[in-house]
Structure formats: C-alpha cells, structure tokens
Design a protein that fits this description.
Radius of gyration: 24 Å
CATH class of the largest domain: Alpha Beta
Oligomer: single chain
Strand content: 5-15%
CATH topology of the largest domain: Rossmann fold
Number of helices: 17
Strand order of the largest sheet: 3-2-1-4-5-6-7
Order of helices and strands: HHEHEEHEEEHEHEHHEHHEHEHEHHEHHH
Largest sheet: 7 strands, parallel
CATH architecture of the largest domain: 3-Layer(aba) Sandwich
Number of domains: 3
Helix content: 40-55%
Shape: globular
Distance between the termini: 64 Å
Length: 416
C-alpha cells in the first residue's frame, strides 16, 4: 500500500519541470499584476507624478551561472567599477570570485541554482540584464516584465548558432566576438519570423583576460611532450564517441596525456567519465583536468586533440600551436544551426576554418597516432590561415569589457 502511495505521488523530471514553469508563470502573473496595481495607486495619489521607472531597483544586472564564467564578466565588472556605475551581480555559485573582489559599486548576491535561481531571475527589475545563459523564454528562464532589455554575450569566438535550439532567439541584443557571427543569426530571424535583435561586435572578454595571464605564467623546469585531449560534450563529443579507442594508443606513446572534459560532461555524462577515470586511475602519464580555467593545461600542451569544441580557438589564438581534430559528422538536430540547411555542418565558419587551420585525425589512424603527431607541423600556410581566423573571430582585442559597458550604458541613455 505504501509503495502504491508513493508511485501515485511520483512525478518524472520532465513533468516536474513543466509544472514548475506553470507555477512560476502563474506566480509571475500575480506578482506583476499586484505591482501594476500598486504603481497605479501611487500615480493616482501623487497626481500623476510617480516615477516612470517605478520598481526598477538596479539599472544594470549581470547573471552568472558560476565561477566558470568569471573571466567573461570580470572585465565588465572592472569597467563598471572604474566608471563608478552601480551594478547588481547575481551568481549561482556561493564561492564566486566576485565575493572576494574589492568592489564598491558592484553589489553581489548568491541566488542558488536550478529552480531556486529561476525563481529569482524571473522577477528581476532592471533597465538592462546581461548573461551568458541561453534559453530565455524557452524553458524555466522567463522574461521579467520589469526588465527593459535582455543582452546575451557570446562567450566563445565560434558560431553563434551552435546553441541548443532557440537558445538566443528571444534576447533583445547579442554581443558578438566577431562580425561574421551576425550573418547566421539574421538568417534564423528571417526563417523563424523573429524581430531583428541588436547585434554588436565587442570582442571576447575572457580571451582578453587570458592574453594578460599568459604573460605571467611560469615555464616548466622539466617539460615532457604533452598532448591535451579537450573535447566538447554530448553524443558527438570525442570522449563519448571514441573513449578508449582514442585514449589507449595515446597512453601507449608514453607522452604526458592531459584529458580535460567539457564542464557540462560532469553533469550530463558522469557515468562515462567515471568509467574512463577508473580505467586509467593507475596510469602515471594520464592527468585529468577539471580546473575552472583551461589556460594552465593549454600552456602545457604541445598539441591539442579535439572535435568541434570552442576551446580549439582558445588554444590556437592564444598559443599559436597545432590542433588535431576528429571530424565526426556532428548531429546538428539539437542545435540552432540545423535550421540553416542540409550543408550547415560543412558551411559553418568554425568547421570551414578548422579544416584550414587544423590537422584532421581519422578514426582508422588512431593506431598510428604517435607517428602522426610527431609529423604534425605548423607550416607557413597554417600560420597564415590562423592569423586570418584570429582577426575574424576575435575583434577589438583587449577592448571587450569597455565596449560591453559602453553598449549597456547607451541603452539606459536611450530609455532616459
């Protein structure tokens, strides 16, 4: 009887998510209706002199999912602080670096994660909200009626359409790392009958941060030849698709092998990672990297092996070293890029560019991977292609923080 009782009460995760969205939507409706009545009452009693922006508690709000995005937002916070402009920084991580920063104009708040965070975010009140989080108005993350403008900042110099479906459709503005990203966004807007967003090229904040940090990195006293395996996540990711088939011949070379899974893998592919970790736990030349910043592994690597991950561009733009990639025929159906046409997998900028600046590693060549890596070279042609890609995808180097703040402030000046 008890088991039957609990079975009747069980709600599967998908249904639970839907119910949560319904509850949040209902709560938001009641909340904003009550606010509207209060504001109308204030206007009535003040003879119509109530502030137009009543209820806007902060002109600027930034939301961060956690400290993995600290280098994306730090240049923006520093610029707001420099200009003595007040900003509220919301984070889903209790030990976010913002809490140890010496800021006077940046107010910070830990809001939890998951549904708790969405409950806070769906009731924001601000002129401008900036975030890297995709999916606005798609799932639990809803537009707050007292937010005037939502801005999404791209946090990789790769294609903007490689988000999960509808990831950036409902933002008011998108901040780009390079002009090239605008084309495909405009195509999707036309295909989906969406209003045009403001598309502003600002550069890449975290690459600006890393470029400065590299100057301070100490070299290794004894440097063993190092291969960095750093894939994306999901069924098409390198580790999920090939696993030991790729790693075994790499390990057998005797070189230092650093494996850096995508941060999302720990959440979505934990079982796969646990299996691989167990297999190589006693292998002296295998290191696992789960550090928040990738720069330390990038600096140690002599060559990188990846798939379609944006970390490829971090590596080649910052260190000018060779990359090998495994072409997987990625399944684009979960991504926005799938709506760009049947040849999107070949025509996306990051895939075309990778063919020009990278060295393709085929599955049938895994057994001879040591020989292939030894022969890999950064030829003059590769260097020229790399320089062109860097200029295209990472514009306004060193200026991203300033340009983002310029844009955010310009939005409030328009609304004044």
């Amino acid at each position: 009887m008890t088991r039957l009782y609990f079975n009747l009460l069980y709600i599967d995760p998908g249904t639970g998510s839907m119910l949560f969205s319904i509850l949040i939507g209902a709560a938001a409706t009641l909340y904003f209706l009550a606010r509207a009545l209060i504001i109308k009452a204030k206007v009535a009693f003040s003879g119509g002199r109530a502030a137009v922006n009543a209820g806007v508690s902060y002109p600027y709000i930034i939301y961060s999912e956690g400290k993995q995005y600290w280098n994306v937002f730090k240049p923006v916070l520093d610029e707001f602080e420099k200009r003595e402009e007040t900003l509220l920084y919301l984070t889903s991580q209790g030990d976010d670096p913002v809490f140890t920063g010496e800021y006077h104009f940046i107010k910070s708040e830990f809001i939890g994660d998951g549904n708790k965070a969405f409950a806070r975010l769906n009731f924001l009140s601000a002129e401008v909200v900036l975030m890297t989080t995709p999916g606005l108005d798609v799932y639990q993350l809803k537009r707050a009626k007292t937010v005037k403008h939502y801005v999404h900042v791209l946090h990789a110099p790769s294609d903007a359409t490689m988000y999960r479906m509808f990831g950036i459709d409902y933002f008011d503005s998108i901040l780009l790392t390079g002009d090239y990203q605008a084309r495909d966004i405009r195509i999707l807007e036309q295909l989906r009958n969406l209003p045009e967003k403001q598309l502003i090229t600002v550069g890449c904040t975290y690459l600006d941060v890393y470029a400065e940090k590299i100057k301070q990195l100490p070299g290794e006293v004894e440097h063993p030849f190092t291969v960095l395996v750093s894939p994306s996540w999901g069924a098409s990711g390198l580790l999920a698709r090939y696993g030991t088939k790729l790693l075994d011949p790499l390990v057998n070379t005797g070189w230092r092998i650093i494996i850096r899974p995508h941060p999302q893998s720990k959440k979505s592919e934990a079982q796969m990672l646990e299996s691989l970790t167990e297999k190589y736990k006693n292998t002296a030349n295998v290191l696992w990297d789960y550090e928040r910043e990738n720069i330390y592994s990038l600096a140690k690597a002599d060559i990188m092996i990846s798939d379609f991950s944006g970390i490829i561009f971090d590596y080649i733009f910052l260190f000018d070293k060779p990359v090998m990639y495994v072409k997987q025929g990625i399944d684009l159906r979960p991504y926005d890029a799938d709506d760009l046409g049947d040849n999107a997998g070949e025509e996306l900028w990051q895939f075309k560019t990778l063919r020009e600046i990278g060295i393709e590693l085929k599955e049938e060549d895994f057994g001879a991977i040591g020989t292939i890596i030894t022969r890999a070279s950064d030829s003059a042609e590769l260097k020229e292609a790399l320089h062109k890609a860097k200029e295209t995808a990472w514009q306004y180097q060193g200026e991203a923080g300033k340009r983002i703040v310029d844009f955010m402030i310009s939005l409030t000046e328009k609304n004044a």
